[in-house]
Amino acid sequence: MNTRNLRILLAVLSSLPFSSIFATENGNVSYPLGGDTFYAGALPPPGTYLLGYYENYHASKFVDKNGNSSIPDFGVNVNMFAPRVVWVTDKKVLGGSLAFHLVQPMVDIRASAAGQSDSRFGMGDSLIATALSWKQGSHNYTTGLEVAIPIGEYSKHNMANPGSNYATYRAMAAYSYIDPKWDASAKITYNYSTENDDTKYKSGQYFAGDYNLSYRIFPNVALGVQGYVLKQVTDDKVNGNDIDFNGQVIGIGPGLIYQSKKGWSIEAKYITETAVENRPKGDATWVRLVMPLH
Q: What residues pair up with 211 in beta bridges, in sequence order?
């Protein structure tokens, strides 16, 4: 394995904040790809809600810009659990409901490449956000600002790290069309990351988002097609120099949600990745539980 690919490998495995991994340093993003697909543009009524996310991500290949395997004996398996507290206030700003949320993931990662392996379990980076949401009949709109705070465990000498050692700032906009039968949702973010002071690596800027089209097959059950999209739009940099390395991925798969009459819901989804460039190529399984606290 050449020096450039080894540098990429170590960078790719150097961090894991809230979930679905990989696209910049050099393959890692803090945006939770696939985490919010059902009703992505709608907020619940005022109140406090507890959400629990579980994801397993598994990849056995890291591909280059042509889709060819570029790192020998590559493998990564990640299990992530993340509680999320959402507070939807009764305050109105510009006619929209004001909300806040906090996510704190715990991550177990096992990685191997080129005869080396590493595993870590620990706290990942925190995610805090504020949002405004509007509802007009079946149309739901949400916009907000999010920050990934690099408090997770990290060492540049480790192949696998729960934390990233750099912050990410993102602007978010989402829309959902919801009627008694259909949910058509899309969420898009624009992400800007700071430099990793330990490696002098600055990940490029990227668009990332989730989508869903689901149909209610029973009164409390909906089945849909959903997934995620990521496209990096600026090059990664090392010591201020571009290295011509941009990631992209499209994820697609089935999703199922059950909504209780008591207000809680549980959903499951399986997403496989395609059109992958400069990232691991794998599959993600998600489970999400939503419970109102009051």
A: 186, 227
Tokens of 158: 């480790």
Q: Read off φ and ψ for residue 7, nearest 5 degrees.
A: -60, -40
Amino acid identity, position 172: M
Strands 241-242 and 195-196: unpaired
pLDDT in tens, 273-282: 999 998 899 9
Q: Which helix (DSSP H) or strand (DSSP E) does residue 288 occupy?
A: strand 279-292
264 contacts: CB under 8 Å, gap ≥ 6 = 289, 290, 291, 292
pTM greater than 0.85: yes
pLDDT digits (tens, 9 = 90+) for 42-94: 999 999 999 999 999 999 999 988 888 888 889 999 999 999 999 999 999 99
Token digits of residue 32: 């939770």
Both tokens assigned to 93: 């700003």
